[in-house]
DDE Tnp4 domain-containing protein (Pogonophryne albipinna), 139 residues
Amino acid sequence: MPNTIRVIDCTHVHIQAPRQREWEYVNRKGRHSINVQLVGDADLAITNCVVRWPGSVHDARIFRESRLFTEFQTNRPDGVILADSAYPLLPWVMTPFPTANTPSQMRYNNAHGRTRSMPNNTGLYCATQYRCPSQSPPL
């Protein structure tokens, strides 16, 4: 994808149920987790990581509350960040079409998905390597 400078996604790292505010850590799949935001570049390097939100928190909120969001709202990057449909569409954040109705929209969604897949898989690999050992199966 031309002009892509980063990709962003969140992944859930499973944890044991905490003693306090346990319900906040239950994600949409009913498991206890921390929702971790990862931002990567074309070299598969993680350039930004936010590890502080319980599993019940939506990806878009984590992004909106991040320093990266504040920085890029103030100082627009020279390029775009690719994100999935959980994120807001902004001048510097490109998401896929919810429904691809034309061949050009389908091509865009395919290119978007291919570009996002490598860093996304790297983040998922990292998350599965550090999952809670008492909980299986992996993410």
